[in-house]
Amino acid sequence: MKTVTGLFDNYDDASDAVGELEATGIPHSNISIVANNADNWRVQDESKAADDAAGGAGLGAVVGGAGGLLTGLGLMAIPGVGPVVAAGWLAATAVGAVGGAVVGGAAGGIVGALTDSGVAEDDAHVYAEGVRRGGTLVTAKVEDPLVASAERILGQTKSVNLEERREEYQASGWTGFDADAENYTSNEIGRDGARRVNRI
């Protein structure tokens, strides 16, 4: 099994990618979406997903069902990222690790959850910073026969080119994701979305 990840500046593009992953046959329980919600674009839905995640329960169990992963979106906070709308295993792991005091050092919940699932630490820092700055992260644990399809879906033209985004962050003095940093204000969120998205 391989972890495949894509960062999107636009939530709708990320949502479309989740739908494509589900249509490819990747189970809901293996897909996760985490979107910044600092500007409260998403109101609290009636799902108990956020409460269950904060209590350490897996979101995947709550999210499953005929409606797909996106029907289980819940509001929560991830240290260093701030308020997010999320569903799936990554959010449950990031919040559960923090709630259970498992997280130590500077890695933070989201970086630790990504690296534990096989994402390179340098990449995990860029993904976490991308969400912190207003982006949406889609991550899937994929069985070998579906890896190429998942990589194609998450590497589409509407996703962020990770290397270019890393270079842009570093050019502004960024050295890595800091879970102890103050959250961006709603006025600061979404600057990345104004950039041109292009992936291979």
From TrEMBL:
In what residue span(s) does the General stress protein 17M-like domain sit? 6-70
* Pfam families reported for this sequence: YflT (PF11181)
Q: Which branch of life, at top level?
A: Bacteria
- What's the protein called, per UniProt? General stress protein 17M-like domain-containing protein
What is the organism field in this record? Mesorhizobium sangaii
